[in-house]
Amino acid sequence: MDRFPRGFIRRRAPSRDTLTEGLLPFGADEVAPAAVTVSAFVARINGALRGAVPDAWVRGEVGDWKVWSSGHAYFSLKDDAACLNAMMWADDVARLPFRVESGMELLARGRPDVYARSGKLSFVVSELQPVGLGALQLAFEQLKARLSAEGLFDLSRKRALPQLPRRIGVVTSRSGAAVRDILKVLSSRFPNAHVTIYPVAVQGAGAAAEVAHAVEAFSRTRCVDVVIVARGGGSKEDLHAFNDERVVRAVARSAVPTISAVGHEIDITLTDLAADVRAATPSQAAELVVARREELDGLLSRRSRELLDRMVIRLSGARTELMSLSGSRGLGELPSRVRSAHVASTTARRDLLAGMRNLPAVFNERLMKADHELRSWPARASLGFQQSRLEQEFRALTDRMAARLASAREKAGLSSGQLGALDPLRVLARGYAVTFRDTDPRPVTDAASVAVDDLLRIRLAHGELRARVVSTTPEPVPGLDGANDEMTKARSERPE
């Protein structure tokens, strides 16, 4: 079934009657010219192109190759004199075994077609092939260059095979000749080896996915010591699965050393380049994995003879050295040295026994000391706490004493102020005086208590005065005039 670009309308070539349907007459006596719609005319062009130009191969250089999100590819084919717009459906693009790049010279198979919506002529391509190089070979070279740039084929990544693996994994077809050759070699060389076969398809559409999954399974489980990826001979198309990027990456990142034995000796696949070791055939891969039993026996025999020869040489040298030492002066003194060492050892033995007899007493003394230290431990353990508590109480006491002293100083200052206010000397300093009888320490506070001619001492702020009473004037008490006169009279009558 022919495919058309999105928006194309597929129509049958219209008949002459269909083309004249719906025409309007110009007049009763006029004949209207024949006209068709644009869609019908484009359909007529496409029909004519398909009939005149069937599928054809066109050779040209690819220009402006672009793949849209829908998967369709749009590009141009050109040479020195012409350019042809081309497109390719997504299904056909997905089937391409190689990567198309601008500037490549290709053979394109397709047919011309006019896109109805834009009216542009394009070349609808269904198949592309490189010029001078097969599609598979081109895809091989492109993938090889890309993976090599990533370092997947570097020799520094290659690992050595285990010398004598006991568990061997084989990824190959269950019914192929490769598995039979491998098992035959392994059974003859090392019958005790444990072989695990992971059956896969080695050619066809799903072969690459199965091989990659098998290699990843061995790498993930680590159930084998080495993995052989094998397939018998075949054409390049038959070996295409081992040039698939998935298989190559699975072999390159395998955690287990790998051997690639694909095809014949002249066949080289990308899996061969990514594996740690390449074998020309599956049988050679088995030979590389294990050595022959005869070879192992021969190796053990040679090593045994070498060891025996070395021991004989060492013994002979030791015997010669002993003979030379037997006549030396130091060896002659050996008996006396042995006797001296015997005496020293006997003394040391006696001292050791004596020391061992004293061990119970020493241990008892240490035990008692430990018991004493254990009993005094709580007091020592609480010493720090008590010291801290004592320091806290000392600080609290100091604070209280300081507060008491401050309060006492404050009270003393207050009392001092009060005493100062009551100090008579301060009163005297303002011009007052204190009067005493000459023989009486009590101050005179009433004029009636002294008589004329009494000697007085007058205390001033600075110094004293002595005086004699010339007269007195008592202060009368209100309401007591008669009593005052009596008191005055009595004083005047008092003898001197």
Secondary structure topology:
Layout: H1 16-19, H2 38-52, E1 56-67, E2 73-78, E3 83-88, H3 90-94, E4 105-114, E5 121-130, H4 135-150, E6 167-172, H5 177-189, E7 194-199, H6 207-221, E8 226-231, H7 245-252, E9 258-262, H8 270-274, E10 277-278, H9 282-289, H10 293-326, H11 329-332, H12 334-357, H13 359-375, H14 377-422, H15 424-428, E11 434-437, E12 455-459, E13 464-468, H16 481-493
Parallel strand pairs: 3-5, 6-7, 6-8, 8-9, 9-10
Antiparallel strand pairs: 1-2, 1-4, 2-3, 4-5, 11-12, 12-13
Helix pairs in contact: 5-9, 6-7
Q: Strand content of the residues, in percent?
A: 15-25%
Strand order, sheet with most strands:
1-2-3-5-4
Distance between the termini: 175 Å
Characterize the overall form.
Answer: flat
Number-wise, the strands total 13
- Helix content estimate: 40-55%
* Major β-sheet annotation: 5 strands, mixed, barrel
Radius of gyration: 66 Å
Low-confidence stretches: 1-28
Q: What's the tally of helices?
A: 16
Order of helices and strands: HHEEEHEEHEHEHEHEHEHHHHHHHEEEH
Alpha-beta classification: alpha/beta
Average pLDDT confidence is 79
